[in-house]
Design brief:
This protein is mainly α. Helix content is 71%, strand content 3%.
Length: 135
């Protein structure tokens, strides 16, 4: 009686699976956050250069604050993207983007301030959300 050894492919079947596949990498996420921070800060700086610093009832918002807030909330977006499905990520970020505009509407010092503040939110979201949604 002859026996034949059958080669196993157990290691080959696991080699292609990655438990982190489909997740947003921190490198890509933070790079996107920096790009969004630069873009939204540029919008705020353009308003300031035009002679209209974006302000709320307490006074003008420093231009650097736009970059700081975009970076902080982009990290929140990265965490959401890494731990939810793509559909859930889109739903959550849509709701958060709308909610982020509510204080601008409520506390904007003028109509131009409100438009400027909302545009910084929308510019940041337009950069961050689609990039983080790619898996």
């Amino acid at each position: 009686m002859t026996t034949y050894a059958v080669p196993t492919t157990a290691t080959a079947s696991y080699a292609g699976t990655d438990k982190h596949a489909g997740r947003v990498s921190w490198k890509r996420g933070l790079g996107t956050a920096v790009a969004a921070a630069v873009a939204s800060t540029a919008v705020a700086a353009a308003f300031q250069a035009a002679g209209h610093a974006l302000s709320v009832t307490d006074g003008a918002i420093p231009v650097a604050a736009f970059a700081q807030m975009v970076l902080v909330f982009s990290v929140v977006g990265i965490l959401i993207a890494r731990h939810t499905s793509r559909a859930t990520f889109f739903r959550v970020t849509a709701v958060l983007t709308v909610l982020s505009c509510v204080p601008d509407i409520a506390y904007g010092a003028s109509a131009l301030d409100t438009v400027g503040l909302i545009s910084t939110h929308l510019v940041a979201a337009a950069i961050v959300v689609p990039r983080l949604a790619r898996r």
